[in-house]
Amino acid sequence: MKRRNFLRNSAIATSAVALKANASNSAFFIGTEPIKIALIGCGGRGTGAAFQALSVKENVVLVAMADAFQDRLDNCYNSLNSDKNPGVKARLKVPKENQFVGFEAYKKAIALADVVILTTPPGFRPMHFEEAVAQGKHVFMEKPVATDAPGIRRVLKAAEESKKKNLKVVVGLQRHYQTSYLETYKRVIDQKVIGDLVSARCYWNNDGVWVVKREAQMTEMEYQMRNWYYFVWLCGDHISEQHIHNIDVINWFKGGHPVEAVGLGGREVRKGKEYGEIFDHHYVEFTYGDGMVLNSQCRHQPGTVSNVSEHLIGTAGRATEGKILDLKGNSIWRHRDKDDKNPYQVEHDVLFDCIVNDKPINDAENGAIATMTSIMGRMATYSGQKVTWDEAINSQVNYFPEKLDWNHLPKSLPDSNGFYPIPVPGKDKLI
Known about the structure:
The structure is a single chain. The protein has helices at about 5-15, 45-55, 70-80, 85-90, 105-110, 125-135, 150-165, 180-190, 220-225, 240, 245-255, 345-355, 365-385, 390-395, and strands at about 35-40, 60-65, 100, 115-120, 140, 170, 195-205, 260-265, 280-285, 295-300, 305-315, 315-320, 325, 330-335, 385-390. By secondary structure, the chain is α/β, with parallel strands linked by helices. Helix 2 packs parallel to helix 3 (about 70-80), helix 6 packs parallel to helix 7 (about 150-165) and helix 11 crosses helix 13. The longest helix has 20 residues, at about 365-385. Mean pLDDT is about 95; it is low at about 1-30.
């Protein structure tokens, strides 16, 4: 499935030169009342996204907050309310009655807003995005946008509805909003400085992330929600939660997604019960429709060499972010980024500019395609099989619990020693 036009238009909109849409869903914001924002998911990324949304030049206020946990909401509110950031504090207008806690809290918060920030663990993204679109709200949502194929299909359906409603949607794949990547794209794709693309590599190899210890009073649902990074239904594994950034860049430059994947992975270092059910390393060979191969690595192993990057090889040279070399290794071009804005801020600047001035921006489809690519890679490493795009996106494997309740058991449960079942390549199909 070719996405060249869609992805190219995404980059153009990011550069703020897109034409105005015919519809005028948001024109009433111009010069009138503040744009009301709701924050759904008040952890670290949600707090950061709220800071960025409240730092745009447009007239905005945060009017509602929602989280599954009271302590996370309180911590987020206190951070936003700090005297260290008076500009952000002045735009914080969330009284106690607009601070919602629990699994259904998102619906109440969304109802009070014009724009919704979705920054919960990714497993909740499909249902939250569906609700925001159903209520006619503009959206910033973090990546990944789902953790399994059924979730992706829900997001794609909601994305189509969001376009019909002229809603503005930005997904937190911030490299699309980063000057060094946009300048590299211009030279590699528009100007073909390195010729035709023949192969690619991408990496997210580092030590790993935080762990939340189990406490005696926690139900299984609460423990998994607190330690969400290590459960597939919540996180999608680190190939989706982190490495999606790198995979997405290759899709973007390639103008489409791979048609098949084969790979390997497992748990070599991170074997403790606190690490739930996910792998600590994945290697995937993605093949695109024209035969081009992307070699993809991601690893969470302390003490190993770190590498977070993307590399494109062409018939006349090779490129990485902000740098192009010829085939002999001589520098052709290098981006000087000292004056570049923070892309995490730029993505919010672009979103609110598009809302106020009714410019087209909708990253939802691209976010779903990037997420599905990473899920296809996970399917390949978990199963040990070659997985096609059609098999992956039509998969009926659903990791999400049948019921959201603190006393309800998620689908993945520990044994008597506290260890969770780990996928076994060659035995588990997982497609």
